[in-house]
Amino acid sequence: MTTTGAPAARFVSRLPKGHLPENVLHFVRVLRGAGLPVGPAKVIDALAAVEAVGVANRTDFREALAAVLCSRREHLDLYEQAFDLFWRNPKLLEKIVASMLPRVTDRTNREHAPPDVPARLAEAMAPPPGATPRRDDDDEVTLDAAFTFSPREVLQTHDFATMTAGELAQVKRMIARLRLPLPAVPMRRTRPASRGTRIDLRATLRRSVSAAGVAAPLAFRARTWRAPPLVVLCDISGSMDRYTRMMLHFLHAITNDRHRVHVLLFGTRLTNVTRHLKHRDVDVALARVATSVADWAGGTRIGASLAEFNRRWSRRLLGQNAVVLLISDGLDAESGAGLEREMERLAKSCRRLVWLNPLLRYADFEARPAGIRAMLPWVDDFLPVHNLASLEALAATLSRAQPAAGRRGAVRAESAMRADPRKVR
């Protein structure tokens, strides 16, 4: 096979001579391990496409494989990253393994840092455990512990902030399978029904006319039941950084599982990331979220952020009995200025307001900061969110019926008498 041009020659020189079919087969296996739906038949199609276009032109080679191996548009991002890494970097596996291990950032040598790749792609391209010889020194034991997965029972109660890289990867896969059921609520609209207590006069009269004087049966209508919308306001300040990253995986799962889910992030400003989280690939979705957010891991202005939400987004998102999840530690940089007024407006605009606070993981937690005292009287449920068990408890709480009327007034009186808000449920 002949090549033309220096770029094409360099491209062909990177491929082992006589092993192009094996490389294509291995590339398809990498894509399958990363989550793309490519089966054995795709390997034959890919080899046929390569034989048709050849390897003289890198662009033709890339597009031919993409046409065969990518069946949906959202697969293209992961495919392009996998193609660039697999067919360009001669020391790919070593850099992928290095990028998955914890490391200290070196500001003086940034150009030698391993490339940022999606976690699924890194895991799919990593060598098998027995591919490299193991050593008995202390360093090798430490690195091996980072890739050891704990049992599910241990990870249920393990704090997100103290997990190793391997445990975080295992928990992310568990979070992707979590669901957030919301009980259906009655709507104002009605639908035709075979029986009921509400008579449909218009339909009954139409039946009477068509019956030609014979007594026609009554027509009934019943109220429509529908799951309410879910609005999530998530704190991305520095004190919430580790928990927010895990919650984004959870929010991506529920955004792609149910309709009418809206996610807004706030630190010093408010950012709507709902459209980014709707992408099917979690790695691509989180990468787009990180690009769109400018105040990640900075300060916290809860009052100003809630005021912006109430002014710009409340009327369009909180209709039809919406449920609001507020994920924050309540530590406001402005000492709760105007926070109580905005919390009151938010609570009166939604059907149910649930506050998720990672500080509740401490047994001696008390509502001493001004921001927490201003927010607490207006919530319906006050729950921790620091491990996998707390997320499952959240799903169980939301699946139960709405608290009785006057609940918030009882919470306000109870919070004034008790110093431990963990008892407020």
Provide structural commentary:
The protein is an alpha/beta fold and 425 residues long. The protein folds into three domains: 6-99, no CATH class; 185-226, no CATH class; 230-423, 3-Layer(aba) Sandwich (Rossmann fold), CATH 3.40.50. Helix content is 47%, strand content 11%. The protein contains 20 helices and nine strands. It has helices at 6-13, 20-34, 40-53, 58-69, 75-88, 92-100, 119-125, 138-146, 152-156, 165-175, 201-210, 241-257, 274-277, 282-292, 302-312, 314-317, 339-349, 370-375, 388-399, 407-417, and strands spanning 185-193, 198-199, 220-226, 230-235, 261-266, 270-272, 323-327, 352-356, 381-383. The strands form two sheets. A six-stranded mixed sheet has the order 6-5-4-7-8-9. It has a three-stranded antiparallel sheet with strand order 1-3-2. Helix 18 links the parallel strand 8 (352-356) and strand 9. Helix 2 crosses helix 3 (40-53), helix 2 (20-34) crosses helix 7 and helix 3 (40-53) packs antiparallel against helix 4. It is flat.
